[in-house]
Automatic annotation (TrEMBL):
<dbReference type="InterPro" id="IPR037171">
    <property type="entry name" value="NagB/RpiA_transferase-like"/>
</dbReference>
<dbReference type="InterPro" id="IPR003741">
    <property type="entry name" value="LUD_dom"/>
</dbReference>
<dbReference type="InterPro" id="IPR024185">
    <property type="entry name" value="FTHF_cligase-like_sf"/>
</dbReference>
<protein>
    <recommendedName>
        <fullName>LUD domain-containing protein</fullName>
    </recommendedName>
</protein>
<dbReference type="Pfam" id="PF02589">
    <property type="entry name" value="LUD_dom"/>
</dbReference>
<feature type="domain" description="LUD">
    <location>
        <begin position="66"/>
        <end position="206"/>
    </location>
</feature>
């Protein structure tokens, strides 16, 4: 004797088998090919990030390590986590403990980190969004969600004007994380609460000549 669940699922399977399955064509007629000069793209990207309450530090590529160490020192960071493929030269000025992440590190050890430092895959100036794709210099998603502070290095050359242009930089098969400012939500009284679903503080180091 079949259960009600089996009956319902059976009817659904029968309906799907009988229903026509015309191909679905997703419209791709949105605007593409937008571009902005470097200074305008930097200004727009910075404005959007600041509006999201992120902290922004533009610098030249040769000052990456200096700026990162200054940020970590000012925020009192003593222990950081990094993905395996992060450029070690970026941490040359940091005097605290550096822990390299790997897949077997449990969440409680990630929670013991004061911060995480990663690179990024792309950015969108129009929305102030940073894209991570799990590359070796960005690491797994848990590494960038559990620690309370995320220092993310973004090369201006990877920041596009609009969303279609930024998405075109990504590999669809890679696990993509979109970051638009620190983690935040609103409680039932519409009071902003930060750090609920990810880092409470986002620091973006924008390398203007990279």
């Amino acid at each position: 004797m079949s259960s009600a669940r089996d009956t319902v699922l059976g009817r659904i399977r029968d309906a799907l088998a009988l229903a026509p399955t015309p191909p679905v064509v997703a419209p791709r007629d949105y605007r593409t090919g937008r571009a902005l000069p470097d200074d305008e793209r930097l200004a727009l990207f910075t404005d959007r990030l600041l509006d999201y309450k992120a902290r922004v530090h533009p610098c030249t590529a040769d000052r990456t390590a200096e700026v990162i160490s200054e940020v970590l020192r000012e925020l009192g960071v003593r222990r950081i986590g990094v993905p395996a493929g992060l450029d070690a030269r970026w941490l040359a000025g940091y005097e605290g403990e550096v822990r390299q992440d790997h897949a077997d590190v449990p969440p409680d050890r990630l929670d013991a980190l004061d911060a995480v430092v990663t690179a990024s895959a792309a950015g969108c100036a129009e929305t102030g969004t940073i894209f991570l794709d799990g590359s070796p210099d960005q690491g797994r998603r848990a590494l960038t969600l559990v620690p309370d502070l995320h220092v993310c290095v973004v090369d201006l050359s990877t920041v596009e004007a609009g969303v279609p242009e930024a998405v075109a930089r990504l590999t669809p098969e890679r696990p993509t994380t979109l970051i638009s400012g620190p983690s935040a939500t609103s409680d039932i009284e519409l009071e902003r609460v930060e750090g609920v679903h990810g880092p409470r503080t986002l620091v973006v180091v924008i390398r203007t000549d990279a």
